[in-house]
Amino acid sequence: MPMTNTTRALWQIHLCVLLWGFTAILGKLITLPALPLVWWRMLIVVAVLALLPRVWRGIRAMPARARWAYAGIGALVALHWLTFYGAIKLSNASVAATCIAFATPMTALVEPLLTRQKFQPRDLLLGLLSLPGIWLVVGGVPAGMHAGIVAGVASALLVALFGVLNKRMVDGGDPLTVTALELGAGTLALTLLAPLMPLLVPAFAGPLLVLPSGMDGFWLVLLALACTLFPFALCLVALRHLSAFTAQLSVNLEPIYAIVLAAILFGEQQELSGEFYAGVAIILGVVFAQGLLAGRRRQAHAEHPETLAVAESRQVAD
C-alpha cells in the first residue's frame, strides 16, 4: 500500500526529532558558551549551503518581501537556539530539552492568531494534557537550575513562533534556499548581538572569532550538518503536509530521546525513575491521541466533500 503524503511527513518529522534529540547531547559535550556555540553552528551550515548553485538561484528568484520574511524568521531561530543552549549551560541537557515540550500549548495558542485559522480548544486541551508528563519527566529541579528553566521556556515560546511562521511560508521557496536565508540572517543577528551579550545575559556570552579547539570543532561540524542542516531542511518539507501543531506535538518526543541518550552517554540514570516512565506514558498518550483525532477529522472531511473543499481553499489562502 503506497504511503500517503501525510504519513511520509510524519515519518520525516520523527526522524528530525530523533536527530534533534542529539543536539542537547552535543550541546553538553561542546565546552563553548551558548553564543559562540550557536554562532559557529549556524555559520558552518551557511558556509556549506553557500557552495550550492541551487541556493543562489533560489535566492535570486525569490521576491524581496519573502527574503525579508525568512530573514526575520531566521532571527527567531537564532534566539531560540541561543536560549536553548543557554538553558543547557545553566541547568543540564535533560531539563533544557524537556522545556521545549512547553511549545505545544504555546503553538496551539499562537497558530490560530498568526494563520487566521479557527481556534481549536481540543488542540489546546491536548497540549495542556502533556504538561503533567513534562513535569514528571523533569522531576525535582534544584534551585540552582531555575534560571535554566526560564531560558528553556523562553526557547519554547520562540519554537512556537518560528514554527508557525515557517508553516505560513512553507511554500515560498526551496527548502535549502530557505534554510540558507534563515540561518544566514540568524548568524548576522547573533553577530550584531554579540557586543551586547555580556551586558544582557553574561552566562550566554563568549568570543565569536576564536576557532574551536580539540573535540569542540568535531562536535560542532557534526551538530551543524547531521543535526541542523539535514533535519532543518527535511522539517520544511514535512511541514507542507502537517499543521504546525501536529509537528510540534511530535517534537514532544525530543526530550524523551535526549534524556535517554543522556542516561546512556552520561550516566544520568537518576532521571530514569518511576516518574520518568509515567511522564513518558503521558506524553506518548497525548501524541497518539492527537494522531487518532486528526485521522478522524480527515475521515470526516472525506465523507463530506464540501467541507474538504472549504478546508483546502482556506489552506491555499493561508
Give keywords.
single chain, disordered C terminus, mainly alpha, 318 residues, 0% strand
Number of alpha- plus pi-helical segments? 15
Largest sheet: none
What is the N-to-C succession of helices and strands? HHHHHHHHHHHHHHH
Query: What is the helix fraction of residues, given as a range?
Result: over 70%
Quaternary structure annotation: single chain
Structural class by secondary-structure content:
mainly alpha
Rg (C-alpha, Å):
19 Å
Strand content: under 5%
Low-confidence stretches: 301-318
**Measured distance between first and last alpha carbons:** 31 Å
Tell me what the structure shows.
With about 325 residues, this protein is mainly alpha-helical. About 80% of the residues lie in helices and about 0% in strands. It is built from 15 helices and no strands. It has helices at about 5-30, 35-50, 55-60, 65-90, 95-100, 105-115, 120-140, 145-170, 175-195, 195-200, 215-240, 245-250, 255-265, 275-305, 305-315. α5 packs across α8 (about 145-170), α5 (about 95-100) packs antiparallel against α13 and α6 (about 105-115) runs antiparallel to α7 (about 120-140).
Quick take:
The protein has 318 residues and is mostly helical. Helix content is 79%, strand content 0%.
Chart the SSEs and their pairings.
Elements: H1 5-29, H2 34-49, H3 53-61, H4 64-90, H5 93-99, H6 103-115, H7 121-138, H8 146-168, H9 175-193, H10 197-200, H11 215-238, H12 244-251, H13 253-266, H14 274-303, H15 305-317
Helix pairs in contact: 1-5, 1-11, 1-13, 2-4, 2-9, 2-11, 3-9, 4-5, 4-8, 4-9, 5-8, 5-13, 6-7, 6-8, 6-12, 7-14, 9-11, 14-15
